[in-house]
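Please, structure for the following, as tokens.
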Amino acid sequence: MNLVLVWVNLFAFQLDLVNAVATVVSTTGLDVRHEMVTVMGRPAYIYRPNQTVMKRPSAGIFVLHGSEGVPSDMYGLGMEVAADANSFLVVYPDMASSRAGEWGYASDIPYFEALAHFLTKEPYRLDPERAFVCGHSAGGSMSLFLQNEMDVFASGAAVEAAVGHLESWNMSKSGHRSMVIWNHADPVLEEYAPTGGEPAYYNLTISTLRRHGTQTYSSRTPLPTSASVVSAEILTYLADNAPELQMLSWRSNPGTHKWPSTSWASFGATETLVSFFIGNAPDAEIGEEIVV
């Protein structure tokens, strides 16, 4: 890239930040309000805990929706309740083309950089050291990509999603601390799996995220089960030459692609992710860690 093009892109980025706007929009069916901000011509929706001006830099969790979805698909997962209790921002980005089949991967990086930078300003005051990204399905695959490619995010997580578009990954990078919530009875993971089916997809995800370190987990923490959750445990791969990875490996009955919720499952993905990112204990009871 020549120097002139670099300066043109930098000027466009700065101009877009100056022209970024924020408006408050109502959330149909929910007793909360989300503010719409427009950065680089794309919207994102922000929830501030208790609708207050943040008094000090706060953590932020970016939540990415799945294929052919919209940001509001993710509003009913309990992130707002958790944000009120733990004082963090919730950020719902949108795809470049609304309801597209997948995120833009490398082409979306400037949008996420600009959005994160914009949110460091008042009234949001995002702490740039505590920005996290997670997503469901296609949004989860994008989140795993972003944690590898961008230092904007301190950690990344995926719910019912595998690594994807590996040709776009910079495999020389180590990425950041990650968590994957994986249902072995998920029909979508089976449908999109490579040769070898869902187990091969699961192993590919681990081997990719842990490519620079050991691929043997160091501890196993049982989680509660129920009529709808046949098995559940957290496998922890400690940081070495690869960053820490936690795999919440579970199996539902019947199979489902849904984001686990305490309304029907023995654990909640939202509570688990907030604990992973922010550090507070999840609501669900966790068994004793078993070191292996």
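Helices lie at 3-19, 79-86, 109-119, 138-149, 187-191, 197-209, 269-278. The chain is about 25% helix and 25% strand.
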